[in-house]
Specification:
Helices cover 53% and strands 17% of the residues. By secondary structure, it is α/β, with parallel strands linked by helices. It is globular, with a radius of gyration of 19 Å. It has 11 helices and 8 strands. It has an 8-stranded parallel β-barrel, surrounded by 8 helices. Bound molecules: SN-glycerol-3-phosphate.
Length: 215
């Protein structure tokens, strides 16, 4: 399973990359807005820190506009993936960008049919938002199971990038289903590693060691 950080914060990306386990970064307009920096400059900085796929979202809602923005974003760095909303115009834009060899991440996916259409349009990644489905009392993870089954049935190469992850159990469940990528906030990345029994166990080992060998 590949791990992406769902952030536009360069310091967070730098810290996660230092662990050596960061496969990519996903951003969205809300995450970019928090950083209060020029979008293209910020993207270039992120792409310097992380050489894996970096998703950058278009903000136009017409096919022509999305294609134009997508082409422009793709020029920032080789590892840019153009993020496109799952609307009719977005599906058309996805096909065009795909034909030009530009990678796409089709975002704001909330149903298996939307995911099927994105795969047929040649999306490199599909981003189902599981946390936001949970928020409206719908089991987000069921969507991941459904998409996995559908993509496997037809051998679609589109990678399932589980988004809107809110806690470490979302990562565990997505991994059990066989999702290709999990994108998560920095906090969840940290939480995956932490276990109180590890800390307690390590303290005991080191205390016992110091009590004898350390003398
Ligand atoms: O980047 C898209 C997605 O991961 C957003 O998550 O927590 O705002 O629903 P969230």
């Amino acid at each position: 399973m590949k791990f992406c950080l769902d952030t536009a914060s360069v310091s967070e990306i730098r810290e996660a990359a230092a662990l050596g386990l960061l496969d990519g970064v996903t951003t969205n307009p809300s995450l970019v807005a928090k950083e209060k920096k020029d979008f293209r400059k910020l993207l270039a900085e992120i792409c310097e820190v992380c050489d894996g796929p970096v998703s950058a979202e278009v903000v136009d809602t017409t096919c022509d506009g999305m294609v134009k923005e997508g082409r422009d974003l793709a020029k920032v760095a080789e590892n840019i993936v153009v993020k496109i909303p799952l609307i009719k115009e977005g599906i058309k834009a996805c096909k065009i960008l795909r034909s030009e060899g530009i990678k796409t991440n089709v975002t704001l996916c909330f149903s298996p049919n939307q995911a099927l259409l994105a795969a047929k349009a040649g999306a490199s990644y599909i981003s189902p938002f599981i946390g936001r489905l949970d928020d409206v009392s719908t089991e987000g993870m069921q969507l991941i199971r459904d998409i996995r089954t559908i993509y496997d049935n037809y051998s679609f190469p589109t990678e399932i990038l589980v988004a809107s992850i809110r806690h470490p159990m979302h990562v565990v469940e997505a991994a059990k289903i066989g999702a290709d990528v999990a994108t998560m906030p920095f906090k969840v990345f940290d939480q995956m590693l932490a276990h109180p029994l590890t800390d307690i166990g390590l303290k005991k080992f080191l205390d016992d060691w110091k009590a004898t060998q350390g003398k």
